[in-house]
Design a protein that fits this description.
The chain folds into two domains: about 110 residues, Aspartate Aminotransferase, domain 1; about 240 residues, Aspartate Aminotransferase, domain 2, CATH 3.40.640. Helices cover about 40% and strands about 15% of the residues. The protein contains 13 helices and 13 strands. Helix 1 packs antiparallel against helix 10 and helix 4 packs parallel to helix 10. Bound molecules: pyridoxal-5'-phosphate. The site of pyridoxal-5'-phosphate has 13 residues, from helix 5 and helix 6.
């Protein structure tokens, strides 16, 4: 579906839907409009309800732990606006979280007196132990929420979520994982990861229809999240959700079938292989500093680097955009972020690097 000759290296912001999903959603939109109420609350509505089960299978969860949202931000907001809180209780997080996650935390600070503590993240990170020590040394008796990204939006760092769950399991801490950059890139088994809450978007690495998202609430903590959107239950459509867009939700189920057919582990392996190539090629260049970790179990398909020598990332972003290469200009560290997804080729990476070099000489 991407336009011809486009090198698309920003799935981390928004992924391109495969043609089969685009075609399906388009045809369902047409069908819906042919008899809206009958279709949306009849056959299409019934079909849409199957998507939760597909999400559960895709992510290693039970269907009654899954809520279909519109995006990652909404999932975190639903949790933060639906839990009880005592003024002075603390939230532990990092300075590398996305604004979409911070909105929910800021709400707790502004309306309920939460104290937000942000770990200043090192970059690049050198070991898992370094990360686990940061958590251990920053938790206090007052910590009630720990929010981490499964994969950092800034550097693409992969947090060892399972180990962190293990580390905090004897504390009364709600562990929220922002999976926006991980779902669709990594093979994910939520029960194995052990976190309490996991939120992600369908329109990034999953490459689904836009405005699709997932909120996972581990069974044991569900009573702690009391949000008006889910008073009608976790079904896709209920009296509290109101009308949903059946075609995009069905298309979301289809894109998950597509990932499962390709194989989630296979997708992860390919993405990591390509990112390793991208990092290796970038390492040959002078005038940039790679801020993504190079350690095998901490690195992902995201590779970020800062530009040195006075070159501005905005200029490189615009120059690449005008030559049909889509990259992400990060708000931090004068950096650029490259997303290496399964549809990206080594030749795409090469084209980006050739153009990058023109700015660095
Ligand atoms: C780590 C992270 N969290 C949350 C978001 C927000 O995603 P959405 O706009 O789909 O809610 C992003 C978007 O880039 C992200 O990278």
């Amino acid at each position: 579906m991407l336009k011809n000759n486009l090198v698309y290296l920003n799935t981390g912001t928004l992924g391109p839907a495969p043609k089969l999903v685009y075609d399906k959603v388009s045809s369902l939109m047409k069908r819906l409009e042919s008899n809206p109420a009958i279709e949306n609350f009849g056959p299409l509505g019934q079909e849409m309800e199957k998507t939760r089960g597909k999400v559960a299978a895709f992510m290693g969860a039970d269907e009654d732990e899954i809520i279909l949202t519109r995006n990652t931000t909404e999932g975190i907001s639903m949790v933060c606006s639906g839990i009880s809180w005592n003024a002075g209780d603390e939230i532990l997080t990092t300075n590398h979280e996305h604004g979409g996650a911070e909105t929910g935390l800021d709400f707790l600070r502004d309306t309920k007196g939460a104290v937000i503590k942000k770990i200043a993240m090192p970059f690049p990170v050198s070991s898992k132990d370094q990360l686990l020590s940061l958590i251990k040394s920053n938790i206090t008796d007052k910590t009630k929420i720990l929010l981490l990204s499964h994969i950092e939006t800034v550097t693409g760092l992969r947090w060892p979520i399972k180990e962190v769950s293990e580390l905090i399991k004897d504390h009364d801490i709600l562990f929220i994982v922002d999976g926006a950059q991980a779902a669709g890139m990594l093979h994910i088994d939520l029960h194995d990861l052990g976190c309490d809450v996991y939120t992600c978007s369908g329109h990034k690495w999953i490459m689904g229809p836009k405005e699709t998202g997932i909120l996972y609430l581990r069974k044991a903590i569900q009573e702690r999240v009391n949000n008006v959107f889910i008073t009608g239950g976790y079904g896709v459509y209920s009296h509290s959700s109101g009308t949903r867009n059946a075609p995009i939700i069905i298309g979301f189920g289809d894109v998950l079938d597509w990932h499962m057919a390709i194989g989630t582990k296979r997708i992860e392996d390919r993405c990591l292989e390509l990112a390793a190539y991208c990092r290796a090629e970038l390492k040959k260049i002078k005038g940039i500093k790679i801020i993504s970790s190079d350690v095998a179990d901490l690195s992902t398909a995201i590779v970020s680097f800062s530009l040195e020598g006075g070159i501005k990332n905005g200029d490189v972003f615009r120059g690449m955009r005008d030559k049909n290469i889509t990259i992400k200009r990060l708000p931090q560290y004068n950096a650029i972020r490259i997303s290496n997804h399964m549809f990206t080729t080594n030749a795409d990476v090469d084209k980006m690097i050739i153009l990058l070099k023109e700015y660095l000489v």
